[in-house]
């Protein structure tokens, strides 16, 4: 069949209507009748006009729907970009700075405070105190039995390079909110981020002097620190010293005895996929960073690997302060196998804090734990997607309803009569060891924890019975 030029518009209109599949018209049959010559040109023209109007109405409705969809999608994206608080985020303290990184919101800029360096009963962690304190019920004057809080100073007179200039200056701090992020974590002995992480700031690992009576924590102080106006005076208080590596249970190499450690604080973004217009085509999906798809990071102590379906961020060596140092930093660190360095001077020199390797002290523990005695301890930092909370539950080997078990094991800490303060840590129930690490080098030591009756209720607890632990996560 040969169509003349006057038939082409009619054909195209009918063809378009057949593609639109209008449920009120049997476009396919009309098109077939027209092409077969079973309807007259006049009738066909009239039918095509009606169908053209219907097609125009249909396309207009489609344009309106698509415009509304586009407007709503753009509004959602704009809200995600602009609404910093409604889409989640993480808060961290930038020690040694008055300001936050350029992509973070300043919650408050304040003064670092903590316990006095020579108080045996010191609270271990530093605080970021506001510049405008508020008060409750109070009575002025130092009276009765109290805990105390002091200001903080840099102790950097034995540090190489520009950091020496900050000695005895008071330390500022900034509390920062990063919207649309799910995780912030400090990684010791690194100055670059692992793949997928975004750098917030980097600097030097610091803690209390190893031989001071007060226990402390390992803290990340910015590599380009600020000072507080009028605060250059040796009044002591909470003191920050640089941390050096000590070989033994800590593997050297890759670590170097007496070399100062750095650290990095990165964040991990949240990600949400929005599928457009009901298509399964991956190319039609929009990735919106900064939504409520959160993740969590935890350390699996005593293992080189993470549980199944959990990403390994790093597999490394457990490190910490020495068991007989009264000024010990209390927490263990998961140190990478490939440390990075900043400005340093090798050798044990000046007033510093230290980090050692860790060993199992399990010769009097039950079960198979005695076979691990004096073995060095591995660790793994694990990234778990689509979870919002992770928590260690002592005296449990199963999780509460609604929680998912990540791993279970034995509650461990430092020996009760050693000078160094420690913290309770959950060591995997099926622990690994480090190759070539079976030697009594001491360092940070892990002992099983037993229950002691009295203020602790017995029953249900039992005097002298070793405690277990479970690490659980929740969406």
Residue ranges: pLDDT <50 for 5 or more in a row? 1-25, 271-292
Shape: globular
The tally of domains stands at 2
Number of DSSP E strands:
23
Rg measurement, Å: 32 Å
N/C terminus separation: 66 Å
Sheet with most strands? 21 strands, mixed
Secondary-structure element order, as H and E?
HHHEEEEEEEEEEEEEEEEEEEEEEE
Mean pLDDT: 81
Question: If helices are DSSP runs of H or I spanning 4 or more residues, what is the number of helices?
Answer: 3
How big a fraction of the residues is strand? Answer: 25-35%
What do you see in this structure?
- The protein is of the alpha+beta class and 475 residues long.
- The termini are far apart.
- The longest helix is centred in the first third of the chain and has 42 residues, at 41-82.
- α1 packs antiparallel against α2 (27-36) and α1 crosses α3.
- Helices cover 14% and strands 31% of the residues.
- It has helices at 7-20, 27-36, 41-82, and strands at 89-95, 105-114, 127-130, 150-154, 172-179, 181-184, 187-188, 198-207, 219-222, 238-245, 262-269, 271-275, 285-289, 295-301, 311-320, 333-335, 353-360, 378-385, 389-394, 404-413, 425-428, 444-448, 468-474.
- The protein folds into 2 domains: 7-82, no CATH class; 89-131 and 148-474, no CATH class.
